[in-house]
Amino acid sequence: MKIIKYIILLFITFTITFSAQAQESKSDKEQEIKSQKIAFFTDKMGLTPEEAQVFWPVYNDYWAKKNKIIADRKDKMTYFADHSENMNNDEMVQYADRYIRYEMELAELLDEYHIKFKKVLPIEKVMKIYLADYEFKTYLLKKIRESGKDDKE
Predict the structure, then answer these.
(1) Is 48 helix (H, G, I), strand (E, B) or coil?
(2) Contacts of residue 27, Cβ cutoff 8 Å, sequence gap at least 6
(3) 59 by DSSP, 3-state: which?
(4) Percent of the chain that is helix, strand, coil (3-state, to 5)
(5) Among candidates 55, 58, 33, which has minimal Cα distance to 45?
(6) Range 70-82 average pLDDT
(7) Model pLDDT for residues 82-115, shown as the tens digit of each residue
(8) Residue partners of 38: CB distance under 8 A and separation at least 6
(9) What pTM value is reported for the model?
(10) What pLDDT, on the 0 to 100 scale, is given for residue 148?
């Protein structure tokens, strides 16, 4: 009975947290990865339903901001890669400096959200965010490699 209650609360939390995002059109693969990430993090962090309800909105906000910085950086670096042969030294310095600013923005964002995470979770679960993030990347890479092997067979 306790497990069923936990699953229902987790489902409600998931529905509330992602209802706004669900309105946006996302590919099935993105939704599948997002669902896997939620389950992975919830399990690895040992989130209670109450913790999940306050954690996921903060974490999703963090990732939205992080993804924007990453997308901006990717655009700038792609432009640089495509046009670097025609750039002078001053332009190259500007791009190199901009790259470092992106890295600093990411570090500042993490510092800002580290404080927010500590306000909504106990410190041991905050550390588990960082571990789960690293482990989830490893998990995804493993799944990609496995799916590549399946395609070759």
Answers:
(1) coil
(2) none
(3) helix
(4) 90, 0, 10
(5) 55
(6) 95
(7) 999 999 999 999 999 999 999 999 999 999 999 9
(8) 14, 56
(9) 0.74
(10) 77
Query: CA angle at residue 38 from 152 to 40, to 5 degrees?
Result: 60
DSSP 120-133: HS-HHHHHHHHHHH
Region of residue 46 (phi > 0: left; psi between -120 and 50: alpha; otherwise: beta): left
Residues in the chain: 153
Residue type, 6: Y
How far apart, in whole angstroms, are the C-alpha atoms of residue 128 and residue 44?
7
What confidence tier does 151 reach under pLDDT thresholds 50, 70, 90? Answer: low
DSSP per residue, 82-120 = HHGGG--HHHHHHHHHHHHHHHHHHHHHHHHHHHHHHHH
One-letter amino acid at 26 equals K
**Hey, what long-range contacts does 36-40 have (CB within 8 A, 24 or more apart)?**
36/139, 37/136, 38/14, 40/132, 40/135, 40/136, 40/139
For residue 146, with 0-12 CB atoms within 10 Å meaning exposed, 13-18 middle and 19 or more buried, which class applies?
exposed
Looking at residue 143, what is its pLDDT?
85
The Cα–Cα gap between 57 and 110 comes to 15
